Every structure is written in structure tokens, then in C-alpha cells.
């Protein structure tokens, strides 16, 4: 903390300014700017969703209250609000009613996760939930209330034994994102860099040392980041780095994730010798709107089934009674497999969600965005028409392995949100536990960061990015075609239902794709498309590898060859 109190950065700036004044004729304007204002921070946050912004806000508030200077950088590869958080519809789960209990929420989470969850983590998240959500409310997040205006309107979703989902219409994530961005902008110590794409984490590897995965003293010093406006790769050095980069949905042809969800944080951590876990547990949301060729898929929230929506075939017959006694409110893995089974049995491309019997005015109040989207894009009148739905990749339960404070195996590197594997979800995430996990672990990571900040040191000899001998690829179509091939491999062979043969074929084809891409990458100046493909190949490898290693069917991993 002494370096912060002495205002190291201002002293450095003064020294460099004086030096430049004595040699002003030797430098260009861009060199002067880069020399005076290096990207050297106390904290670097990669990602601007609920996890990253919550972490940044807590750091800024802490140092603001202590009246100590601090520099916090938040980088995001497009605009600040384009995150998985923004697209979360249903809500955030917490024990909020006097009729509900922590124990029931814990049990629901364990059941959904096939009981391979880390129970200690489940207990931590569930019991800390109300306090963390109250903080979101304090930041200005609005949640829907009952008509009397006093009590929150708590929804119920699949796998939950009680009404405990706080929500804002059917755009809860967008509302949380709005409030957090407004809070972030109130702190001068936080700098947001939009259209900056993280390429690789910086460790001792870049200082010429041999770094292996289970070496205990690996340290993260920040990241190499592509400035999308200049095309230059810049060093963002930091004492502590937080990965909050979201999911991996774009490795599949059909996903509810935005186009930014390419597994960047997980791939960067893995290349830096970070440990990843539970990557085989890919959650397919049972009910995305059936719009062939559209990506991302439009989500029909789980809350619609909680509201009373019933899954049916085209002829109006129900089918969930053949799969689970909880019917349309069974956990997502069961519902997704049931729909997949019905589609294959009948040879159809989708099933339907029937809400015609629901109170239209109340439905419209709860789901205005879904109602309008169905009308505008498919011409559906939900009072008369059933909604065509199909499963789509939605969430990753695995990621960079962290402890109960969000710490990875790499020192001074934290991970939170969907890119992390905390143990909360086990083999399947309970609905509306994802936003909750992100905000709880952002807080716990903040606490541990403050505890450990004194030991963080940034070496002076970290090299600049070296792309000598590379050029811009002449044919971008190569990257486009390889991306399509990757999506096809994962969708056809590593989907809702798997077999040993499909997984083996997926791995074989991925190895060929990796070799082809690696050759192109080494010859090319980095760009977002080629780097995203690089990351998607890494996370696809991890998904396939861990799916092949899993010899039992648990939660979201279902292999026909494991059925006894």
C-alpha cells in the first residue's frame, strides 16, 4: 500500500515528462504519449458484465473511502454493455421471502447439480445472496414489485422449490448492467476501455522462464491487449488481474449468447497454465425461439414456464409427463434432453411452448420484450398461437478453476462469473443462480485482493508485443470457414446427447483444425477474428477432452455409451 500512498504513477509521470522535454526532437507525438502514459494499473479487469463491474466498483469505493489514489482499468472488446449479463432475462435467485429458507435453496442447487457441487461453496453463495443483491439495489437496480408496491414480485423457475427469483420484467440482466455502469462512471479511478481485445495474459513465460501448469509460483502481470481502433497490441500491466469474460456459446451453431462469448478468458488462462475444470457440462437452454439460421438465438426465459407455460408438440399433446414428474418445470438438463428426444422421435425441428391459457395482461406485464419480439419477428399472437422453441447452448458450468475467493492457481489472477468454475453449479446450473454467483464471487475476490495487494510487484523488463515477420492475412475467408467448421464439429458431435464415437471424431477433426489455424496464426498479425477462433479452438478442446474423460452420466453430460 506504500506505493499507492506515495503516488508512484504521478512521480513516474513527472520524471518522464522532464526527460522528454530535454529530448523533444527525438520522439513522435504517438511515442511521447505512449512513453508518458503507459498502461500501468493497480487493477486490470477484463470484461464488463456483472462480475467485472461489481469487482471494479468495490475496489474503487474501498480506496475512495481510504482517500488513497488507485488506477483501475476495465477493458471490453466492444461497447461496455455488450455482455452475457445484458442478455439474462429471468432474474437473480435469493432467499427473500419469510416463507423460504437457505436450506431449501441449497438443496435445490445441489439437486440440480446432481450433487457433485461443492457444498461449502453452495452454502456460501446462498447465505451471502441477500446482502449482495441489496448492494445491487443500492446501486440503483430496479426489481419488479407486487401491485401494492411494498413486496418484491418473486418468480419461480425450474428446479426451485419456492418463489425466490427477483426480476425486472424480462430484461433483468440489462437492468443490472445499466445500474452497474452508472455506478462505475461515478468513480474517476475507473477507466473503461471499449473496443480493446485481450490477447494473452502476461506471466514469467514472457520473461523467458519455463512455466508449467502445476508450478505454484506463476504470477500474472496483466495482459497484452489489441487496440481495435489502431490495430496495435498494447501492454496493460497490473498488480492484480480479474478475468470476467463470460461464456463460450459461439463454439456452437445455435446459442443464446451474444457474439462476444468466445471463451477468451478461459483460453487465455489455459495458455498461461491455468487449471480448468468441468468444461464438459454445457447447459442447453430448453426454450430458445425457433428461428433457423439466426445467431444468437432469442431466449424464451425459463420464467415463462414458471409463469405457467406448458411444453407441447405441434398437435397440442403434452410430453413432459413421460420424462419427469416435475413436468415443464424440471431442471434444464432434463427438459432439454426431453425436447431433443421428442424432436428425434417425431422427426421435427422444434416443439412448442403454450401460454394461451395464461392471463394475457399479467403475462404482458411480466414479459413485454418476449411478447413483442414474437409478434414482430414471427407474427405470433401468444393469445392464439403457441411459441415454437428449440434447445440452444446457453451456459457453461465449468471454466477456470477458482477457490472460494475467486483465486486461480496463478498468483494475482482472479476469475468470476461464467468464465470461472467455482463448484456452485456442479453438473448443472440451477436457474437464476448465475448472476448470483457472479456478484457473490466478485465480492469475495475483492476482499482477497485487498488482503494480498501488498505482495504484488510488476517487473520492469516485460517486453512489448513482438509481431515481427507477420503480415495481415490476405484471405479472411480462411478464418470464416474454419469458424464454421468448428461450430459444426461441436454442434453435431458434442451437443445435448453424446457418444464415444462422436467425441472421438470431434477430437480428430479439431486437431486438424488446430494445426491449420496455428500455422495461419503464426504468420498473421493478430486480429479479433483470428484470435477469437484461436480461443474457441482451445475451449472446444477442453470441452471434448473432459467429455471423453467423464465415464458417467451426470447433469448436462449425457453419453449414450454410459447408459447401463
Supply the CATH class of the largest domain: Alpha Beta
Structural class: alpha/beta
Distance between the termini: 59 Å
Indicate the percent of residues in helices: 25-40%
Strand segment count = 16
Structure description:
The chain is of the alpha/beta class. The protein has 3 domains: 1-6 and 39-281 and 397-460, FAD/NAD(P)-binding domain (3-Layer(bba) Sandwich); 297-392, Succinate dehydrogenase/fumarate reductase flavoprotein, catalytic domain (Flavocytochrome C3, Chain A, domain 1), CATH 3.90.700.10; 477-562, Fumarate reductase/succinate dehydrogenase flavoprotein-like, C-terminal domain (Methane Monooxygenase Hydroxylase, Chain G, domain 1). Helices cover 38% and strands 14% of the residues. Helix 8 (264-271) packs across helix 16 and helix 14 (477-493) packs antiparallel against helix 15. The protein is globular. The N and C termini lie far apart (59 Å).
Care to give the gist of this entry?
By secondary structure, the chain is α/β, with parallel strands linked by helices. Helices cover 38% and strands 14% of the residues. The protein contains 16 helices and 16 strands.
Topology of this structure?
Layout: H1 2-5, H2 8-22, H3 29-36, E1 40-46, H4 50-65, E2 72-76, E3 92-93, H5 102-112, H6 119-138, E4 165-166, H7 172-184, E5 190-194, E6 196-201, E7 222-227, E8 233-243, H8 264-271, E9 276-277, E10 282-289, H9 302-307, E11 310-312, H10 332-346, E12 351-354, H11 360-366, H12 368-378, E13 387-396, E14 399-401, E15 413-415, E16 420-421, H13 434-452, H14 477-493, H15 500-523, H16 528-549
Parallel strand pairs: 1-2, 1-8, 2-5, 8-15, 14-16
Antiparallel strand pairs: 3-4, 6-7, 7-8, 9-14, 10-13, 11-12, 12-13
Helix pairs in contact: 4-7, 4-13, 5-6, 6-13, 8-16, 14-15, 14-16, 15-16
